Structures are given as structure tokens and as C-alpha cells.
Amino acid sequence: MTFKPALKTLFQAVGLALATMGAASAQVSDGIVKIGVLTDLSGTYSDVAGKGTVVATQMAIDDFNAKEKPSFKIEIVSADHQNKGDIAANKAREWFEQGKVDVVSELVTTSVALAVQKIAKEKNKIALVSGAASTRVTNEDCNDVTVHWTYDTYAVANGTAKAVTKAGGKKWFFLTADYAFGHSLEKDATDVVKANGGEVVGAVRHPFPGSDFSSFLLKAQSSGAQIIGLANAGGDTINSIKQAAEFGITPKQQLAGLLMFITDVHSLGLKATQSMYLTEGFYWNLNDDTRAWSKRFFDLHKRMPTMVQAGQYSSVMHYLKAVKASGTDDTAKVMTQMKKTPVNDFFAKNGTIRDDGRMVHDMYLLQVKKPAESTTPWDYYNVRATIPAAEAFQPLSASKCSLITKK
């Protein structure tokens, strides 16, 4: 009888100690969440991603602080990877080892993303990929710390190549950026063209980044193809379209921009791009939610957002909410929280992160307006179709990701 109060006190002390240990283990390290934005600030993809993704990240941080009032501080660092995998990998390693960065994000350029996601896995840190395109990110090169957020080569090819082929463009020739992204986009588009009754009569690969596309375009011209598929992006796509017009290739042969962005259309103008099909994961003028966010972005950046920039905001916000919900910046716990929580924001409705790290959401088949159809600045697209998430991205049944167990 006399030992019961003492035992009760002992049990209470042990319980308090365990609770304290549990709370301590669930805290954010150093009380700070540090986000690294690794992007192209000066090169081919700087309009597509670049400074705009840094702006979008800061918007996400500011909105999260205002709405969620977290107990932890949030910091941001950014760097220019110059579209080089080795520079990106070294910067990511430096950030993780010395800069106390918790998550590295954006990563436009496939070679950059593939290099950085390996470092992230090695250091057990999270990589949020908004700008890179290749399906390799969540296919052959997948890992359990990487999320591919905005789009990929399968999704954009599945939209644009299918629409152009079904509209009668059966005979294709590819002009392809000679690195992992271009190879992936050409392959995915080829599969779609053939699946819809088309044929590929040839392809040529140009250096990345490129400036003079004359010899490559002349090969495409002599091929007799109806469609010249541009398996490149950013400045390479812009220059390809300009030079095709200069050589008189268009409108005799039709160009298909397999990865185009609103900034490309803005740079080229509606006269040069009218009636072209493209596939995107976001359009600023889609609905009231996209317009409201995009106006705020425009006020800061003076340009309407690309899908990469909008996706960057969405991915960072989802990550920060997962940190708060799980009470920690521990990589495994945050990833678990991110994957079990649907994505519902201006960028995606009922988006989900699959086991391979692919965030699946609706995509949009768009067609560039004729000049007379555009009524306001940046009013460039007609929305021709919504491609449901289940159809937009590569099915898990075709996955080569080691994390996926086939039944």
C-alpha cells in the first residue's frame, strides 16, 4: 500500500519524460525550415523558370506565414545552376552539408534534376522538381525523396502529339535537343504518334543549348514530313520557330511545339504561333482562382506565370503544410504526410502524389489564339480539352520505378 504513491509518481515522471522526448524528436531542426531554389537564372530556361520561380517561392512562404502562423522560421536561398548537372549537384551538396537546407526545389533542366535527386537521396533530403521534364525522374531514376510536380514528357506528348496526329498530321520529323530531356520527349511523342496511326520519317538532334538551327531545319524540310515536332524548349524552341519562318518552312510544314510555355508565345507573338497546339499543366486565365493568383504574381514579376512558376508555388506550399502537420522536418515523415494529403489549390484540384513520386493532376490541351481573338494582354490560349489526371500521366502499370510493386 505504501509503495503505490511512489510508483504513481515514478510512472508519471517516466510518462512526462517520454512525452518530452517525443516532442523533441518531432521538432523542426534549428527551428528553421530552409528552402533552396536551384534554377536557370541566366540561360535558355530563365524565362520559363528563373527569377519567377524565386518570386513564386517567396509568395508561398509569405502566404504560409500569414495563414498558418507556424512556430518555425522559413528561409530561402537561390542559385543559378547554368543548366549544368555538375554545378547543380555541387551546389546541392554544399547546401545540404553546410547550408542546412532542408529541401531543394525547382530544378529546371532534366540533367540537373537527375543529378540533384541523387544527392538528395544520398543526404536524405527532399527534392521538389517543378521545371524538369523527363519521365526518368519518377521512372528509371525514381527515389523515395523526390516529387515530380508540374508536368513531364509523357504528359505533354500525350496531349499535343495526339491532338496533332488525330487532326491529320500523320507524317512526323523530330528536331530534338541532344540531351536526356529531348531524348525522352522525342520517345514519348513517337509512341503517341504511332499509337494514333501516324509515322515518324526521321529525326535530327541539335546541341543544347542551340542558336543556329538552319542545317537541322533544312533536313526536316527535305524529309517531306507534314509535322516538324520540336522536342526542345525555352530559347531553343523560340529560335527554331523563328528560323523555320525565315527559311519559308512554315506554313508549308506545320510545327508542333511539344513543350511550349506562355512566355514562348509572348516572345514570338500570336502571328507567329497562331493555331499551334500545346499542352500545359496550368494557364493563368483558366478560372477565377488561377486569375487571382496570377494577378498577384504579375504585380511582382511583371509577367504572367508559366506552369513551372505556378507549380513551384504549389509544391513549396504543400511541403510547408506537411512540415507543420507532421511537426517536424524529418524527411521520411514529411514525405509520408505529403503523399497522404491531396493537393487542392489554384494549381491542381484533387492532385495526388503516387508512390513513384509523380504528382498527378489534370493537364490542358491548348491552342494558340489568332491575333484577332485575343482581347487582353497575355490572353493567348483557347482551352480545347481537359486531360484527366488518370489519362495525362504514364500509368503505374508501365512504370520502371523500383518503388512500384507490380501485381
Topology:
Blueprint: H1 4-25, E1 32-39, H2 50-68, E2 73-80, H3 85-97, E3 103-106, H4 110-123, E4 126-129, E5 146-148, H5 153-166, E6 171-177, H6 180-195, E7 199-206, H7 214-222, E8 227-231, H8 235-246, E9 254-257, H9 262-268, H10 270-273, E10 277-280, H11 288-301, H12 307-326, H13 331-340, E11 352-353, E12 359-360, E13 363-368, E14 381-387, H14 389-392
Parallel strand pairs: 1-2, 1-3, 3-4, 4-5, 6-7, 6-8, 8-9
Antiparallel strand pairs: 10-13, 11-12, 13-14
Helix pairs in contact: 2-12, 3-4, 5-6, 8-9, 12-13
Outline the structure in words:
The protein is built from 14 helices and 14 strands. The protein is of the alpha/beta class. Strand 6 (171-177), helix 6 (180-195) and strand 7 (199-206) form a beta-alpha-beta unit. Helix 8 (235-246) packs parallel to helix 9 (262-268). The protein is globular and about 65 Å long. Residues 13-25 have low confidence and may be disordered.
